[in-house]
Specification:
single chain; 236 residues; mainly beta; Glucose Permease (Domain IIA); 10-stranded antiparallel β-sheet; two-stranded antiparallel sheet
């Protein structure tokens, strides 16, 4: 019987390749669970909407929106921006602001109760057009904030205006109340709509007791009669 040696080197030589150890898989890192957002919704800004109107419609404080969205200038928001509304459950329809037209009913009130318009917006003057409404009242009568805002000026340093209050409404809009006999608020103070801020007088270049009332949009005067309801005819 022919014996074949399988283990010795007497048979034909064959090279045997040795496989390297397969690469080890990297361990999968453990991911921390995503933190849940607090209750709220995102609102997409539409053309003509202001942060003040968005806050009012959703029933939240303007300061809350500013802080939650890290907004530097509340008067300048961009169409298409997503504004986080903390605490809201659903998105709601927010009205748009049209500077040249009438504001939403009830948003502005007359600064002088039962006042009569002596001179309307755009009335001709010696060298210019009238930039507001002159509203007749009696001496010492309260002048109230036509809309909630923050006092940014209270003094008598504006030429011709006499004792004046200017309110900023945080959406590019300011209101001005001039020719007062006394000022009841200070700079930095937050006032509510309807709150007394001054008393009617005839300071500055006024010739009779009245309130000179202006609305300014981005520092441009607009006709206040389009913002106030109901409209009153100018006295003759």
């Amino acid at each position: 019987m022919l014996a074949v040696c399988l283990l010795c080197a007497c048979g034909p030589r064959h090279q045997v390749s040795v496989l390297a150890d397969p690469p080890r898989a990297e361990p999968v890192p453990e991911l921390e669970p995503e933190s849940e957002l607090p209750p709220g919704v995102f609102h997409r800004v539409r053309p003509g909407q202001t942060l003040w109107r968005i806050a009012r419609t959703y029933g939240v404080e303007l300061e809350s929106l500013v802080e939650a969205n890290s907004i530097l200038d509340p008067s300048r928001i961009v169409t298409g921006d997503m504004i986080w509304i903390p605490g809201a459950r659903d998105t709601v329809e927010v009205g748009v602001h049209v500077p040249e037209g009438a504001a939403a009913a009830g948003e502005w009130i007359w600064p002088v109760r039962n006042g009569v318009v002596l001179s309307g917006f755009g009335a001709p003057r010696r060298s210019h057009r009238h930039g507001g409404l002159d509203i007749k009242g009696f001496a010492g009568q309260p002048v109230v904030a036509a809309r909630s805002g923050r006092v940014v000026y209270a003094g008598a340093g504006l030429r011709g205006y006499g004792k004046t209050v200017i309110l900023d409404h945080s959406d590019g809009i300011r209101s001005l109340y001039a020719h007062n006999s006394a000022l009841l608020v200070r700079v930095g103070e937050r006032v509510d709509q309807g709150q007394s801020i001054a008393r009617i007088g005839r300071t500055g270049n006024a010739t009779t007791e009245h309130c000179h009332f202006e609305i300014r949009v981005n520092d441009r005067r607009v006709d206040p009669s389009r913002w106030l309801s109901p409209a009153r005819r100018a006295a003759r």
